[in-house]
Design goal:
The chain has 231 residues and is α+β, with helices and mostly antiparallel strands. Helix content is 37%, strand content 16%.
């Protein structure tokens, strides 16, 4: 079985985790680095073989029914992550000291922070008297706390020194895909920027300067400029 594990871009790495791995209960994780001078593909082979990761969907389903854990492995550059579902597996004994639960400790990479949280409320349908609590756990992709603070400080410093057009270019160039929580973070920064600009008698920066749709990429393929434009 051809098990693909090397993400070709940070966007693809985060997308694969957020859309195809974490939503399926792979909440227990360990991260590591390929040692300097080691062949990354050799590390991929070693870990996927050691933990029996390259199995079919049918085998994963049978293991789940038997109360056994399944694992996924993903790498970008020298950073790799092993993720497991609940159940019995040698992974939990051999990696015990390093295992983290993504519901409690966010998985951070490249300035992104991924966690799994209880949902808030479902979208209210016409005629419903009130919103219904969301009972499912949802993947949240945010800008990591320290990176967010740096970004906020940067924009507040520029807020009264740049024209609207220049601020628009700065906001549009923020290097994070606009997952819903990230959109809220950037809208908060924009609100603070506009508060300062209003105090200084400057024109506000419109919310249209933000990207609201994220690019869908192919995680295991090199992203060309043409693919990026089409995505």
């Amino acid at each position: 079985m051809n098990y693909r594990s090397e993400a070709m871009s940070l966007e693809g790495f985060v997308q694969q985790l957020a859309s195809n791995i974490l939503p399926h209960g792979y909440w227990f994780y360990v991260t590591g680095r390929v040692p300097l001078g080691k062949n990354p593909q050799a590390i991929d082979e070693k870990l996927t073989t050691k933990y029996g990761i390259t199995i079919s969907r049918q085998q994963r389903a049978r293991r789940k029914l038997a109360g056994l854990a399944n694992l996924h492995y993903l790498r970008i550059g020298s950073l790799w992550v092993l993720l497991a579902t609940r159940g019995e597996h040698r992974f939990f004994a051999e990696e015990a000291e390093a295992i983290r639960d993504v519901r409690k400790v966010p998985l951070q990479v490249g300035g992104y922070s991924l966690t799994v949280r209880q949902g808030g409320f479902l979208k209210r349908l016409p005629g419903e008297p009130k919103q219904t609590p969301d009972s499912k756990r949802r993947v949240r992709v945010q800008i990591a706390r320290e990176k967010y603070r740096d970004l906020k400080s940067y924009f507040l410093e520029l807020s009264t020194r740049r024209a609207v057009e220049e601020m628009a270019r700065e906001f549009f160039g923020v290097p994070f895909e606009p997952y819903a929580p990230i959109r809220r973070q950037l809208l908060n920064i924009l609100r603070l920027v506009n508060a300062k600009r209003q105090e200084a008698g400057l024109a506000k920066v419109p919310p249209t300067v933000l990207r609201y749709r994220r690019r869908i990429v192919k995680p295991f393929e090199q992203q060309t400029d043409r693919q990026a434009d089409a995505a």
